[in-house]
């Protein structure tokens, strides 16, 4: 099945069931070398898929702006001509309803929902395949692309790679924070903002709540036992673990958290949500 089609169908489903694989699990003692080896052996690299909704049935304002952004700074990005369309997609209200960020307070508004319902065109932009070392840089470029297309008249924006949508006020705040982090040359801040912009959490698998999309900034996913607290508390744990990995490294974080590194993924390797860097699974 076409990869973009997989992403579109996946974003409409409210939850994805756990599906075991033959992948191995690595103990904390195995550490960072193990994740690097697994990632290096995999041919899978993350990439962004961005969905922009337009207010008119003429795609040229958005496609022209995207093309100019690609020339100006978004090297490697491309417009998907097969799935972009100069007409409404009646699945979008359901898809955005599943994808709205439910962690950040007031992450979207009734006006954002109305904009989705009233959209008249859809533009998809594909990012380049990203080596791990380039994920943060490219994610900051993806935020700049979102800014450019909002300025060109997009009425709603969704990241298809993890199935995450924000309202315009939230997108603008993330864009502002990303620009400040780039100006300050602060890679840890850039990584965190990229994660908040393009990853989805929490989703549910049996016994755990999971993140999806941390690979878009070069990190493994984080699975937290569902008994660890409320959803908001569990999200705080996910974010803390991701920040610890970014700041201290994977192996120290695994040891400190008594966690394991698993490659037992819910997603197939040819899906955009598949994380080649594995899953940090916290103990129950």
Per-chain topology:
Elements: H1 3-12, E1 25-26, H2 31-41, E2 49-54, H3 60-72, E3 78-79, H4 92-99, H5 110-117, E4 121-126, H6 135-151, E5 156-159, E6 164-166, H7 168-183, H8 187-198, E7 200-205, E8 208-212, E9 221-225, H9 231-248, H10 250-257, E10 260-262, E11 279-281
Parallel strand pairs: 9-11
Antiparallel strand pairs: 1-10, 2-4, 2-5, 3-4, 5-6, 7-8, 8-9, 10-11
What can you see in these coordinates?
The chain has 284 residues and is α+β, with helices and mostly antiparallel strands. It is built from 10 helices and 11 strands. The protein has a 6-stranded mixed beta sheet with strand order 1-10-11-9-8-7, with helices on one face. It has a 5-stranded antiparallel beta sheet with strand order 3-4-2-5-6, with helices on both faces. A hairpin with a 4-residue loop joins strand 5 and strand 6 (164-166). Helix 9 crosses helix 10 (250-257). The protein is globular and about 55 Å long.
What portion of residues is helical? 40-55%
Structural class: alpha+beta
What is the gyration radius calculated from CA atoms?
Answer: 18 Å
Summarize model confidence as the mean pLDDT: 88
* Widest sheet, order of strands: 1-10-11-9-8-7
Give the N-terminus to C-terminus distance in angstroms: 36 Å
């Amino acid at each position: 099945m076409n990869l973009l089609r997989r992403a579109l169908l996946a974003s409409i489903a409210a939850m994805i069931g756990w599906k075991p694989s033959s992948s191995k699990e690595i103990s904390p003692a195995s550490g960072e070398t193990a994740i690097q080896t697994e990632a290096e052996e995999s041919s899978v690299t993350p990439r962004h898929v961005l969905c922009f909704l337009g207010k008119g049935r003429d795609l040229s304002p958005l496609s022209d702006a995207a093309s100019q952004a690609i020339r100006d700074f978004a090297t490697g990005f491309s417009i998907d001509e097969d799935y972009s369309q100069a007409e409404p997609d009646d699945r979008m209200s359901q898809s955005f309803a599943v994808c709205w960020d439910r962690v950040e307070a007031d992450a979207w508004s009734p006006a954002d929902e109305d904009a989705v319902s009233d959209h008249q065109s859809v533009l998809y932009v594909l990012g380049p395949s990203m080596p791990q070392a380039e994920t943060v840089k490219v994610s900051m470029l993806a935020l700049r692309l979102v800014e450019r297309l909002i300025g060109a008249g997009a009425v709603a924006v969704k990241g298809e790679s993890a199935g995450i949508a924000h309202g315009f006020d939230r997108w603008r705040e993330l864009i502002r924070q990303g620009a400040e982090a780039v100006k300050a040359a602060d890679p840890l801040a850039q990584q965190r903002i990229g994660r908040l912009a393009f990853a989805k959490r929490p989703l549910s698998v049996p016994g755990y709540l999971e993140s999806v999309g941390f690979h878009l900034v070069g990190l493994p996913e984080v699975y937290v036992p569902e008994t660890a607290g409320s959803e908001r508390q569990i999200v705080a744990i996910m974010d803390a673990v991701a920040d610890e990995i970014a700041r201290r490294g994977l192996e120290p974080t695994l040891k400190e958290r008594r966690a394991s590194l698993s490659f037992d993924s819910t997603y197939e390797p040819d899906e955009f949500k598949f994380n080649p860097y594995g899953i940090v699974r916290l103990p129950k």
